[in-house]
Predict the structure.
Amino acid sequence: MNTETIANLRQTLIERREELTRDLQHLQNELRDLSVEQDAEGGGTGNHFADDGSSLGEQERIGTIESNFREQIAQIDQAIERMDEGTYGACQRCGQPINEERLEALPYTAFCIDCQKFLENQAELYGAHASS
Ligand SMILES: [Zn+2]
C-alpha cells in the first residue's frame, strides 16, 4: 500500500472522527435535554411525550448509539496509531495485508475479511467480542 493511499485514508479517518465527535456532542445534548424534561415532569407544565416511558426508551436508544460512536472513534484512533507505526493495512489477527477496497470502504478496520468473519462467528458463539 503506497503512502499516498495511506495519506488519503488518514484524511478520511480524521474527517470521520470529527463528524463522530460532533454527532456525539449532539447526542449528549439530547440526553441532557431529555433528563431536564424528566426532572420537570412533576411541574405540571405539560409533557409532550406520549407516555412517561417513552423518554426513558429514548434515552436508552441514544445511549446505544452513543456507545457505537465511541467504539468507532476508538477504532479510528487505533487505525491512525497503526498508520504512525507503519503497521496499517496489515490484519491484526493473521498479519496478511487487508484488501485495499475493504480499507477504502472501512478505513478503520483492523482485520481482513476472513478474520472479521471468524471473529463475528466467535462473538456469536460465545456472546462476546473474542480477542486473539
Ligand atoms: Zn486476517
About this structure: The helical segments are 3-39, 52-85, 100-105, 113-126. The chain has a mean pLDDT of 87. The chain has two domains: 1-88, 90-132. The chain has four helices and no strands.
